[in-house]
Amino acid sequence: MIVTAPLFQAYLECPTKCWLRFHAESATGNVYAEWVRAQNDLYRLDALNRLRALFATREQTTAPSISKQSKGATWQLATDVNLYVNGLDSHLQAVEKMPSAGARRTVRFVPYHFHFSNAVAKKEKLLLAFDAMLLSELLQCGVSLGKILHGDHHVIAKVRLSSLMKEVRRRIKDVTALLANPSPPDFVLNRHCPQCEFQLRCRKEAVDRDELTLLSGMTEKQRKRLHERGIFTVTQLSFTFRPRRRSWARRGKKEKFHQSLRARAIREKKIHTVDLVDPKLSGTPVYLDVEGMPDRDFCYLIGARVVTGPSPIQYQFWANDAGEEKHIWHEFLDLLATISDPKIIHYGSYEKDFLKRMQDRYGTPPQESTAGMAIERGVNLLSLIFAQIYFPTYSNGLKEIGRYLGFHWPEGARSALESIVWRSRWEVSRDPEGKQRLLDYNRLDCEALERVTGALLKLVRDAPSEGGSPQHDVVRASDIKREGLYKFKRNAFVIPDLGVINRAAYWDYQRERVYVKSSHKAKGRSRRKANRRSVMTLRPNTTIEYPRPRRCLRCQSKAVVRHNCKTKRIIDLRFMRHGLKRWVTHHVLRQYLCKSCGKTFTGHPLFTAHKYGSGFTAYMMYMNIELRLPQGHVDNHVERVFGLYMAPGSTKRCKSAMALSYRPTYDNLVKKLCSGPLLNVDETGISVRGHGGFVWVLASAEDVAYVYTPTREGTTIQGLLKDFTGVLVSDFYTAYDSIPCIQQKWLIHFIRDLNEALLKHPYDEELKRLGTAFADLVKPIVDTVDRRGLKKRFLRKHKAFVSRFYRRIDEASWTSDAGGKLVTRLQKNRNKMFTFLDFDGVPWNNNNAEHAVKAFATLRQVIDGPRSENGLLEYLVLLSLCETCKNKRVEFLDFLHSGSENIDEFAASQRRRGLHISRSWKMDG
Question: Domains in the chain, please, with CATH?
Fold first, then answer.
């Protein structure tokens, strides 16, 4: 098998093209590809003549044999050089031998490459590097510099080849493997297709096979993800679209593009819409289309279709050469000045860039002028269609949408590339027919733009109101029903009366409207339910009357008399050995009057204004935070069990009061964690009033604290840990990397990602080797931890095996994308993956933080999106205390009921009493 330069060039453009050329498949032809080949041939002859003119005849040679002995040859320019080495073949256009400048400097060989375009793409540099690699192997010396002669002005671009040769060697391996395979590669349409001689063949095959690659804008990464899910065709993709309700934060913002919705539009052959926004195209429409030569940065034709009445007028401004570009630009500005309230409408970014470039090059018209205002208010029609309107076409190109709407171009006008060919041929022949062909092509584009604009305005005009009947050939994404199995849902009845009968069979309809009218018992239950909120009179269990003060609190006079009397009932719970009892205390607090100074005061300053006692609030928070009961369920439970009427929001108010009282305890907990020797960190998401937020978990072996931030930016966590000097155990989120401390990354997190990659790529042998090597490294370490614990004197013996593992992955070459990403992560975190081998008590996983995250995730399902950020912060304060109590093996309820504000002191007192093992710990253990 011989890999030639044309095959290598074809591989750079498209692997399928390379395989088809190698197997001599018949081409369908392409006007632009043939023109490019002819232009390159003509340019090569002209460039060789120019290059030969720089050297004397005796210094030139043709088709020499290249070998190590060529270093002593007398020629300085060699042309038509054939290179063949190790199954690689190329025809080098020219090579220059530069003599040494000193006694110790060797001769340098500089290969040349010729290209007619004014722009040099990376493909041309890689082709030059391919020739240079063969040349260096034949000469047995390095070739580090190459030159590309290109463009109308024969500019010489110097190219450094050392880094490009590495890429060429890697791609040659891919080409060899591709050509050795008897079956063609995975079918992919790319940007090179309009320039390829196999375009029609590949397009027809893709349509027949319904390939995903037909959908423009779909990246290779997206296709791989779909293939991993078993989705290989456009039809399969069309069934995956699921309409989602837009979040509160996304309302008013532009919706992202859905390839699945485009696929659905193609399958159903109907237009699908997401948001139909009025384009507000008021004024006189001016449909603009510009033709140019991209590589020469030159626009030669400006087409403007002006609609001022029933019959539009087409204006076209033609430039014979680049010198007339300024003239046609000013003619276009003069046209805008004569139009009343012009509204420029164009399609795509080419015209937008043209308007900006012309203003930068030839001056901007006055902003208050008609032309200046028209340019500033120009509308890109594609921006109104993208992600909002899905036509049943494979792309949003003007020609595809225009053809769907019934507009037709001549057979020879497939793409804008053909107009480049026509213009180049006209510049040589000055044929009037060639010019007319370009003018007709430009006029048709303007007419197509007018057709698409009219279709867009019609969609907006005919769009039904909310809840109205949709158009026959237009589908709103919001009207698409998300079908699912085994779900309760309302049936859609064809006959409306059947729907009325069906609604009468629902459970709540029966109880609230039918049974109430049918049974006296049901009527009684209904009345009792309405009178449920009756005011209850609670008999006090004890009465406390505060003693009379002896003296006035202000003047210390003994002339004190009774003035008024206040009473307060405090509802509390009395904790007994095997249960709880409602306990109502009647407080009698008298007011007294000092006859000397006239001051009124109470006899006891400790009188509380709270309705519920500390035991009652502790029990409510125990059910809400530790037992994960919703606040409404807590209110119902207290009402049913203790016979108390709980006003709506009672648990919420108790939570706010208790969180406020324990806020200093929480702050001390956070401070203790941020100054400790070891800290585990993790984060998880939360929704607050429709906005996304994040809760960060700080955990150690005994303490836990939760911190809320509106975003995932690491500024908050970095601020908390700016003075942290211990070991930080975390995942691979980059925000942790900037914290100046010793870090240990989760090995278990990497192992899960490695396993997921293996499941997605079961036939990736490189990935399997990496997984096996990593398992062989970590398994003995885990065995040592199980036997000896986290002690560095037993673990440091494994450091030599870690170094050997990294040397192996550094020396190996990784061609697998999935394996390469994992290796890059290993190399990036080389000093953070096995830190625990050098410290005592540092874990290789993040169990502490993950366990705390699970606790918050369970509570998150209960609170179901707090109404405010303050409500979430109150939950986090109490949950931090709850999880810390669990880790210290004390009861959260006992701690709240005790009135203590220091968990460590409370745990010590429990241990002294022999009560340090909590009931929940016994159940878990």
Answer: 3-180 (3.90.320.10), 284-389+396-462 (3.30.420.10), 542-553+565-657 (no CATH), 663-910 (no CATH)
